């Protein structure tokens, strides 16, 4: 049986054809920056065309960046999608209609990625897993007793919006001191630009110019030991350590998987530092919890979305 | 069918006879301050005698303050019991032997209290509940999908040892910035005494003298608007707000129950302030999570221990 999984990201729409837990083909297009949900639906349908269309496809899963109501296929809010200001968009029904009624399921992208890592990546064999996705923002997905936990209102796992510093840096969501404000790339970029505006230049802004401060730029600035890059990444590691420790203490987790664009780029050293920072705060000294890098790279979101579709039909 | 539940606390051993979810009789003795586990076992057996002995009793549950391995009835550590330095004490088997082989079950006291509130108190009808027990320390218990969640190593729910202030006040457990360091009565007492040693006198130390700074003393000092009492309780409220918000954000909880000696004494105003502080930090603006006072008072731990026994046989 064959499924299509779509990872709807802030910069690209990435799709895979999955058979069981194997990826048979992939395709991507740029995420439209204007045109709202209608343009996004068109792009998703385009990627599905690039993948060979829907012949023989049993259903489609979409991982979306934002708050999702899985049952109705509704994207409640997607603040990280440019041009998507609408709330409560029935993305699943819209894509299904464009595909002639094929079943379409929508899942939070971090949940989808965590599910893929659990079934096929770094989380195989573990029962209680937190996936932490460090990219533009910080997403999270939670597996308890081997099952994805969405919670009654669908918000479970949002580790990026747990507090790591009371009255701390303002988060993209408007609250204060959330993990995402310290470890999300968008917030770190804002901070790097503010440092430059108030003080000496830093390599991050020098390399990025007016463009996006990519994970590559972060990695290069770290390698060059730029003081601002070092300090902001230290802050990110420390914030991630607190959030991971709190999740382990509250939930007695086996495994924490760190993925996402920035984490993938910074690699195992970054993840090892997060594990070290978490260990210093975890209450249960003998906790068996491990912190490991994600194994599936860019593919996890789309594969996870396909797995969601397969589990939902 | 009739069960006995024992709440083993730092100051008293409180026992109840429970039929279903109803308490038929109760009794208490002082917790021995020396003599270690053997003296505690003797006191527990004494309380059971005061309750009328074991005729017609199907089993005994014990709620113990500390880390518990439920399956083996083992208390791994109980730092808040004076004279109990031993690790890995098989309390269940020891009490069972003293009672001629009657089944005896041991549970973390905060888990037991949360279970009782869920079955018979403030948590009836809710499915996803966190119990927060604010007393000498800060304990926690977690109900997910209507079931007590112990976690694979038995440490789940330890909200008192989640971080609310990075590199903050040192906790009784030795880590830094944990909730218990701001909201546990023992830690707040240390802080109040340190303030007096370094600065002007405060009413808390004046009332407590060399004795224990009880919840009653905290309530009186607050009523008199003692500045140190006001500030330390403000800090406790703020720390509880952060920890509650983080648990709601991570787990999409319905209900948070605030109980324990200090919370019971300070009453609904204290709990309302915690709810307000939490709301300011919760990511999901429309979260239906409510924060409410515990309903069963002192009885919850012992009743919950009886319920644990009833569920285990």
Write the layout of secondary structure elements.
The structure is a homodimer of 313-residue chains.
Chain A: E1 2-8, E2 12-19, E3 22-30, H1 36-50, E4 57-64, E5 67-69, E6 74-77, H2 91-98, E7 104-108, H3 109-120, E8 129-134, E9 138-144, E10 147-148, H4 179-183, H5 185-198, H6 203-208, H7 215-223, H8 227-251, E11 255-259, H9 261-279, E12 290-293, H10 300-312
Parallel strand pairs in A: 1-4, 4-7, 8-11, 11-12
Antiparallel strand pairs in A: 1-2, 2-3, 5-6, 8-9, 9-10
Given helix and strand content, the structural type of chain A is alpha/beta
Q: Going across the major beta sheet of chain A, what is the strand order?
A: 3-2-1-4-7
Which oligomerization state do the chains in this entry correspond to? homodimer
Largest protein interface, residues of each chain: A-B, 48 and 48 residues
Count of helical stretches of chain A: 10
Radius of gyration of chain A: 19 Å
Gap between N and C termini of chain A, in Å?
12 Å
The helix fraction of chain A, in percent, is 40-55%
Write down how many β-strands of chain A occur, each being a DSSP E stretch of 2 or more residues. 12
Q: What is the string of SSEs of chain A from the N terminus onward?
A: EEEHEEEHEHEEEHHHHHEHEH
Shape of chain A: globular
Mean pLDDT of chain A: 95
Poorly predicted sequence stretches spanning 5 or more consecutive residues of chain A: none
The biggest beta sheet of chain A, please? 5 strands, mixed
β-strand percent of chain A reads 15-25%
């Amino acid at each position: 049986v064959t499924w299509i999984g779509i990872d709807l990201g802030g910069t690209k729409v990435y799709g895979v054809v999955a058979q069981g837990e194997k990826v048979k083909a992939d395709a991507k297009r740029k995420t439209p920056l204007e045109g709202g949900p209608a343009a996004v639906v068109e792009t998703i349908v385009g990627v599905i065309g690039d993948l060979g269309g829907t012949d023989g496809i049993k259903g489609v899963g979409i991982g979306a960046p934002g708050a999702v109501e899985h049952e109705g296929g509704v994207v409640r809010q997607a603040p990280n999608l440019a041009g998507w200001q609408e709330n409560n968009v029935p993305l699943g029904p819209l894509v299904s209609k464009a595909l002639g009624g094929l079943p379409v399921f929508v899942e939070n992208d971090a949940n989808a990625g965590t599910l893929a890592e659990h079934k096929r990546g770094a989380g195989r064999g573990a029962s209680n897993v937190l996936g932490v996705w460090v990219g533009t923002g910080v997403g999270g997905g939670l597996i308890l007793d081997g099952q994805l936990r969405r919670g009654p209102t669908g918000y479970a796992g949002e580790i990026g919006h747990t507090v790591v510093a009371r009255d701390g840096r303002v988060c993209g969501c408007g609250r204060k001191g959330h993990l995402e404000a310290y470890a999300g790339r968008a917030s770190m970029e804002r901070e790097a630009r503010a440092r430059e505006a108030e003080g000496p230049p830093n390599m991050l802004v020098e390399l990025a110019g007016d463009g996006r401060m990519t994970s590559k730029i972060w990695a290069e600035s770290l390698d060059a030991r730029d003081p601002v890059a070092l300090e902001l990444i230290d802050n990110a590691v420390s914030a991630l350590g607190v959030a991971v420790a709190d999740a382990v203490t509250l939930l007695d987790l086996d495994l924490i998987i760190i993925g996402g664009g920035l984490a993938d780029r910074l690699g195992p050293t970054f993840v090892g530092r997060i594990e070290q920072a978490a260990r210093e705060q975890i209450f249960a000294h003998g906790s068996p919890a491990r912190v490991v890098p994600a194994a599936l790279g860019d593919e996890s979101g789309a594969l996870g979305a396909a797995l969601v579709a397969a589990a939902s039909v």
